[in-house]
Amino acid sequence: MKMRAGLLITIGFFLLQGCFSPKIRMFTDSTDPYQEFTLEGTQTPKVLVLQANGQIDEGPSRGLLRDRPGMVPDIVSQLRRAEKDKDIGAVVIKINSPGGTVTASDVLYHELKTFKERTGVKMVAVFMGIAASGGYYIALPADRIVAHPTTITGSVGVIFLQPKVEGLMEKLGVGVDVSKSGDKKDMGSPFRPSTAEEARLLQDLTDQLGQRFITLLTQHRQISPEALAEIRTARIFLADEARQLGMVDRIGYVEDAIQSAKTLAGLPDDAKVVVYRRGEFPDDTVYNAAGTTTGTAKPELVHIELPGSMGELSSGFFYIWPPAAGL
Question: What are the beta bridge partners of residue 39?
């Protein structure tokens, strides 16, 4: 009982600090610069391992004690650092993501693609538990895609999420007055049902964004018409079926992806494998997903996400597999 009371007092103290005084930093966060750490190997050039964990977004997640950077700025900042290091001979991007917003996924795809074009560095994507929808989208620029034997991938398509609260408002006796300059200015409003024409227009936008995904897929991958017909249903696949459809190149583990990157880039077997982190971890390995998007090497005693966090998805278009994102 005393421990619970002490914890509540501590939480209350930091909440009050946030309201009445400058923010106190107890941990490293996204304002701390990245440092390079060698996980294995002794020779250069190096293989850089990037992490893409969680939902793909641009904005930070706000916690009680610190903020977590969004995936897009986090990975882009690492790509900028890698571009300045001529010893980076290959990049492995380790993906464990159900996807995210359409624009954030597309921005990250673009940044990975242009990094490859500017540097000529070979890139291998390796899928962990989930690499679905936007998680698959961002892997398309890779020279080779390796899927873990138990990976869930696919969900190649877009979904438009449109929360509706008009029923609740009616029960509460609450309404919204709207003045608009055009008859479709409030199209998609959560406060009223969509008209048949509005539903058609939204479906048209959804189809166009879905077609963009398919177009990029066919540009980057050799997919047969029969396989494409199955893929464009937006269903999910296990790794072996994804390989048969041409979505991935091989089944393997992270070490297989790193070896593939070394082979593609012509690097020695003992090439250094490095990561960028904001803090040092003892006995660090490539399976450590912390220190990048989490922004710290130190344990978090309390993590409470505040309103506006990346866990909240509002109306919009998403390259995402909803069940894995808690939707």
Answer: none
This prediction's pTM: 0.81
What is the DSSP secondary structure assignment for residue 326, as one 8-state letter? T
**What 3-state class would DSSP assign to 99?**
strand
pLDDT for 323 equals 85
Confirm whether 180 is a catalytic residue.
Answer: no
User: 50 and 75 in contact (C-beta within 8 Å)?
Assistant: yes
Give per-residue pLDDT as tens, 221-245.
Answer: 999 999 999 999 999 999 999 999 9
Question: Other CB atoms closer than 10 Å to residue 48's CB: what's the count?
Answer: 26
Of 133, 155, 189, 260, catalytic: 133
Local structure of 77: helix, strand or coil: helix
For 306-311, which contacts have Cβ atoms below 8 Å and span 24 or more sequence positions? Answer: 306/62, 306/63, 306/64, 308/59, 308/62, 309/61, 309/62, 309/63, 310/54, 310/55, 310/57, 310/59, 310/60, 310/61, 310/68, 310/70, 311/55, 311/61
| 272 catalytic residue (yes or no) | no
Q: Please identify which of the residues 180, 185, 224, 315 carries the catalytic annotation.
A: 185
Token pair recorded at residue 145: 């895609």
